Amino acid sequence: MAVTPWEDELTRQLQEKFGEQILEFSSYLGQNFLVARPEAVIPILEYLKAEAQFDYLVDVTAVDYPERPERFELVYILYSFERNQRIRIKTRIPEGFRPATAVPVYPTANWLEREVFDMFGIEFQGHPDMRRILLPEDWTGHPLRKDVSILDMDQRWVRQHLGIESGQ
Length: 168
Prior knowledge:
The chain has 2 domains: 3-134, NADH:ubiquinone oxidoreductase Nqo5 subunit (Beta Polymerase, domain 2), CATH 3.30.460.80; 136-168, no CATH class.
């Protein structure tokens, strides 16, 4: 993996402000990211928005590593129009951990966090409307988790709502 250290004025400012709350500053193929402790994510997002002009939350997503104690890696992607720069804020959380919502900082986090909930089952503490956004409310499971096949997941719903056997 071609991960290299990320060092610039922004990383120095963040390190000074957040210290050991930020575990890593790196770049992968020119894409800058930091890894932070879960409790530091919202303060880092607030700082980046207010002090570093990262005014657009591009995405919130997750990656499932079922074999790790901190099963999920949450990824927040920010963009600064002023800087013409994109960065990622990553954090690792265990199954059942409820990270704080980013909606008060970036209102667009509302639907993005709902998608993460729908696909991975990660509930965001303080979210104003934590419910499915892509799948039906009575869907069982979370399709982007790696421990259950999507083919197994949808059998009951397809039978019940469409009256057919899944063709998969």
